[in-house]
């Protein structure tokens, strides 16, 4: 029996719209904000929460790690597949992963929403639930501290995540050294597989999933879940830093493309072992949106949660990444070039 | 002679599109990012700039002030009136004002751009120039430390600003006390006047301004400039805090609405003097987007740049704001309710 909740949203979708669920265009900004804020309690780093011109967040290391990433309807998601809860979860997760990839602990999220007037208030409520639950599950102590709301013809969720290095140096992409182990924590290619299942089985403009779970096998259901509600290993970012990671980044555009970026930044070649890339090496190399953590470590023991997938070798001209010694060509995706491409 | 540059963009708009100015949809994300980054040098607070998963920004006070605000084409601006430079400047300025309103010094901006495919690369370059110049002019030392880029049917600029309290407590909206002076630094109603001039004289879908400066009188040109490229008194936020401000906020939705918010948060009534509101008191009360700083101070000397506009009195039921003793009704705008309303 396939677990139905793994395929679609764990957050129940109302079958009928309650009478008190107005369109966003019909209610005041204040009511929308209250709907969000009642669902997103302060985190332990919030010194001053929402309600003023700006929030104040603790920065114990006297520095703050900051990143921003946006989900836009069309290039980044389809409304037929992603409910509000899914979108809140994913928008949080992808930003938390960027903080973790620096070796930092996430402390706060700021959320800028641009919402079409004809969306329901319950959609925004579900978004807020998704943000809260993703923080609680992936980065306890982190919370939504501020936001902004505007109307737009296109649904857009721009999130900024903040984090603290806990006194450590930031782990950049440029520190990989010859002889280091290359290791990964998290999924490889599963989110991209989930997207391909969605495109193949459910027309993007068609019926919202969950539809009939009987049509999905278990691997497909898991893959769809990885696409809609990714679970990157946020807590392992600081662990990797403590274990002496020399370089780290999150894999958002596929292992081939992102390992190439790390190799270029470090002036080395990353030599991957095909046998370590799982049952579907091409998916692992080309598939984006898993938000796994790719890191290099001095040879020896790896931190818990990381598995060895290759090693760092001296730079091979025109071959930033190899797989079993063969250069890996341009795989992965450039979200700009491929935006909206149904073929991906 | 009207100063032409004050009405339209100070940044020259190309009359013809150069051959090497491709559409955004035709170039790689990397090229767009390089176009931006070559125009936005690191600031003094940037410990690690763009190019990694996240930036690292100094937070000397061991806390960080953070806010986010978005400009969306349609509700927030018209492409016919605002060039890329104007939009970059304004998106920076409105966020810097929220940091200043807490009594903090801005340290960094993160910029999430969602850009239609048919926009030119030069548009994004002008945006970056606007961000840089606004930081340099309004908050020296602050810089763009990170960003995100995606394609979207709707142009959207979501900015997060960070700031440092320099060891002081944050100035909230809730600290106004009976007997305090109410003071303001910056413009009152000029940006809204500029918007009304634009709506009246230049159809939003029509010819881009600058058109014929001869049709504008000097006050109108200044008002349009205040709307397109506001110059809020960012540096006076920390000054107000040093001078003992008891409450502070930025006036983005008009003095009546925002003073009412401060009054509600503080449990007082703000009693304004009409004579202190300039030649157009209604504009001052109702007009948004000036991003002036509204602050309360213990009675006595005001800091440089602030002028007295009223006093804090005990709460009058149902009258958070009065003007010459008369309750001020609901004025100002709710950007949600009024989005796209040409009548504003």
From TrEMBL, chains A, B:
EC number: 2.7.4.16
Residue ranges occupied by any PurM-like N-terminal domain in the UniProt entry: 51-163
Ranges for region Disordered: 1-25, 323-344
Binding site for Mg(2+) 2: 69, 98
Sequence positions that bind ATP: 147-148, 173, 252
InterPro entries: PurM-like_C_sf, PurM-like_N, PurM-like_N_sf, ThiL-like
Residues involved in Mg(2+) 4 binding: 53, 67, 98
CDD domains for the chain: ThiL
Reaction equations catalysed: thiamine phosphate + ATP = thiamine diphosphate + ADP
Positions contributing to Mg(2+) 1 binding: 68-69, 148
Enzyme class: transferase
Keywords: ATP-binding, Kinase, Magnesium, Metal-binding, Nucleotide-binding, Thiamine biosynthesis, Transferase
Bias-annotated ranges (Basic and acidic residues): 335-344
Residues binding Mg(2+) 3, per UniProt: 53, 98, 250
Binding-site positions, substrate: 76, 289, 333
This protein's pathway: Cofactor biosynthesis; thiamine diphosphate biosynthesis; thiamine diphosphate from thiamine phosphate: step 1/1
Record-level Gene Ontology MF annotations: thiamine-phosphate kinase activity
Miscellaneous field: Reaction mechanism of ThiL seems to utilize a direct, inline transfer of the gamma-phosphate of ATP to TMP rather than a phosphorylated enzyme intermediate.
Protein function: Catalyzes the ATP-dependent phosphorylation of thiamine-monophosphate (TMP) to form thiamine-pyrophosphate (TPP), the active form of vitamin B1.
Xref: PANTHER family: THIAMINE-MONOPHOSPHATE KINASE
Listed NCBIfam families: thiL
Family indicated by similarity: Belongs to the thiamine-monophosphate kinase family.
Protein name: Thiamine-monophosphate kinase
Natural source organism: Microbacterium capsulatum
């Amino acid at each position: 029996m396939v677990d139905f909740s793994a395929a679609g949203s764990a957050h129940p979708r109302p079958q009928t719209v309650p009478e008190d669920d107005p369109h966003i265009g019909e209610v005041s900004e204040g009511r929308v904000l209250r709907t969000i804020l009642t669902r997103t309690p302060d985190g332990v780093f919030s010194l001053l929460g929402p309600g003023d011109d700006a929030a104040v967040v603790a920065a114990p290391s006297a520095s703050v790690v900051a990143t921003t990433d946006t989900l836009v309807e069309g290039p980044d998601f389809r409304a037929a597949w992603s409910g509000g809860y899914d979108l809140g979860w994913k928008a949080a997760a992808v930003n938390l992963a960027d903080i973790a990839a620096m070796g930092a602990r996430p402390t706060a999220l700021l959320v800028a929403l641009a919402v079409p007037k004809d969306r329901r208030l319950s959609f925004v409520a579900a978004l807020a639930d998704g943000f809260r639950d993703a923080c609680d599950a992936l980065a306890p102590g982190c919370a939504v501290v501020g936001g902004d709301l505007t109307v737009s013809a296109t649904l857009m969720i721009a999130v900024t995540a903040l984090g603290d290095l806990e006194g450590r140096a930031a782990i950049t992409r440029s520190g990989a050294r010859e002889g280091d182990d290359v290791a990964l924590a998290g999924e490889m290619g599963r989110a991209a597989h989930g997207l391909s299942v969605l495109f193949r089985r459910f027309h993007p403009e068609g019926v919202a999933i969950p539809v009939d779970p009987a049509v999905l096998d278990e691997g497909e259901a898991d893959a769809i879940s990885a696409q809609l509600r990714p679970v990157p290993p946020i807590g392992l970012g600081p662990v990797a830093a403590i274990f002496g990671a020399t370089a780290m980044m999150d894999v958002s555009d596929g292992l081939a493309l992102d390992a190439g970026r790390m190799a270029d930044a470090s002036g080395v070649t990353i030599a991957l072992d095909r046998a370590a890339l799982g049952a579907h090496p091409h998916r692992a190399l080309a598939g984006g949106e898993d938000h796994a953590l790719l890191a290099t470590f001095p040879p020896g023991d790896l931190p818990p949660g990381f598995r060895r997938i290759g090693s760092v070798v001296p730079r091979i001209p025109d071959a930033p990444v190899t797989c079993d010694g063969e250069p890996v060509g341009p795989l992965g995706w450039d979200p700009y070039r491929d935006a909206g491409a149904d073929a991906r």
